[in-house]
Structure formats: C-alpha cells, structure tokens
Amino acid sequence: MSLDVLEHACRARLEGLLGLPLDNSTPASRARLAGLYAGAASLGALATLLAPSPQAGAVVAAATLCCAAWAAQAWRVSRLPYYLMPDPASLPLAAWEVLPGRGVGPFELGPPRAEVLRMLRRARACWLHVGSVAYVLGGPSGWVAACLLASGNRQERDAPPDPGDLGDVVWVETAHPFHATPEGVAPGLQTREVTARLGPPLDVTHPVSGDTVIHYPGLRVTIRRGRVRSLRVLSPDPLEAACPWNL
Q1: Angle at Cα 152 formed by Cα 218 and Cα 89, nearest 5°?
Q2: Which of 30, 100, 125, 201 could disulfide-pair with 218, CB 3.0 to 4.6 Å?
Q3: In whole angstroms, what is the distance from residue 209 CA to residue 224 CA?
C-alpha cells in the first residue's frame, strides 16, 4: 500500500449528501455517490439545452459542471480501498521507540496485544491489501499504521473488519515526529542524517511515487523532499520482507 493512499485516508472526512446514507466511509458508498453526481450532471446537461434564456442556461451549465467534477472526484476515490472508521480516536502524543524488526511503541510484530486491539478499533481508517488489513491512527501531521494478516476474503466492501478477527501484526509504520529509533532517526530528520546515524543501508529504491526508500534490516525509511517522511518496521527476514503485504 502506497504512502499516498495512506495519507489520503488520513485526510478524508465523512461527507453526507442531502440526508442520504452516502457518507464516504466505504468504497461502495463513494462509488454510489459518484453515480448520483453523474446522474445529476446528466439531468443538468438536458436542463441546459431546455433553459428558457441564455442566463438561466449559464447558471444550470455551471451547476452541471460542478456535479460532473464531483462525480469524477468521487469515482477516483472510490477506487481507493480504505474504509473510514465510525469512531476514531486521537493518537497519543507519546515518545514511542522505533525498534527495527520488533515494533513501534506498543505496536509489536507478531500476535497483537490487547492494548493494540483497543486502539485499532478506534483507528482513523483501514484498508484491505493482499492477504492483510492495515489500520491508520492519527492524521496527516502525525500517524501510525499497522498491518495485520487476514485469512481469505471475508470482508465485505460495506463492512470494515474487526481487528480482533485478524492475525499477526506484520509491519508498523509511523510518520509521527515523536517516534524515533535508538539512534535518533525520526520523521522530519534530514536525509543525510539517516546514513550518518544508521550506517550504510542494504539498498536504496525509488518507487513510482517519486519517494526514496532506504532499506535496513527490519526497517524501511521513506524520504520525501529531502526529509524522513515515515519509518516502517517489518521482519528482518528477507523472505518475509518480500511478502505481498510488505511491498
């Protein structure tokens, strides 16, 4: 799952329309919202042709263009797989330690602790990925995401899964400035400080998104515009690091 999709989910809001149960919370709801706007745009185009005066036609045409633009936007975000959770909580402003190959604060790799499950049930959003489900807490300025294994394809498009029904935590990613490795590498740090503090990396890759990812055993450091954007903790085992949910 790309960093851009995760941060889009952090910014998203529940948006009702005319009292209808289309609240932007699920992919299916956003697709229905796109269809509603597209239908309104079609009716607007017809109304523009039948307008009694040029002035009235111009007003209807402007409204039609707005509906068409909203339909395109709703359809675009309906392709993103996140669900907005109904009762999100704020992320604690705690100085969590980022331990490569182990976890971030209370979010440890392996079976999820009870404290983690309570936090995930009040996450900001979640989304389905290959054999897994990821949850994000917080917002664009500071967030933590955790990915848990999912067996089969049990989740419906209109029902986000319950984290208690899922398996092990396989990666944890943080963009919170209070979260740092023992060497002091944290989101917001300049790129040159990463290798100065952590040493030579295993690899450096450049995803399609345009970011730079610096790879260390059990840790991936994402660089955006010359600074650390996020730290992802995952298994140091190269075979596990190559699993679909880690790509």
Answers
A1: 60
A2: 100
A3: 10
